[in-house]
Amino acid sequence: MNNSLLIKTLKQKLEKSETDAFLEIFDVGESRDTGELAGLAVAIKDNILYEGHHASAGSKILENYVAPYSSTVVERLLDAGAVIVGRTNMDEFAMGSSTENSAYKKTKNPHDLTRVPGGSSGGSAAAVAEGLVPLAFGTDTGGSVRQPAAFCGVVGFKPSYGAISRYGLIAMGSSLDQAGILTLSVKEARTAFNVVRGRDVRDSTSIDIDEEVAPVRTIGIPRNLIEREGIDSDVLENFNRAMDALASGGYTIQDVDIEHVEKSLAIYYVVMPAEVSSNLARYDGVRYGKSVATDTLFELYSKSRGEGFGDEVRRRIMLGTYVLSAGYSDAYYRKAQALRGVIRKGFDTAFETVDVIATPTTPTPAFKIGERTNDPLAMYLADIFTVPASITGLPAISIPSGTVEREGKALPLGLQFIAPYKKDLSLFTLGQDSEKII
Ligand code: GLN
Question: What is the pTM of this model?
Answer without folding.
Answer: 0.98
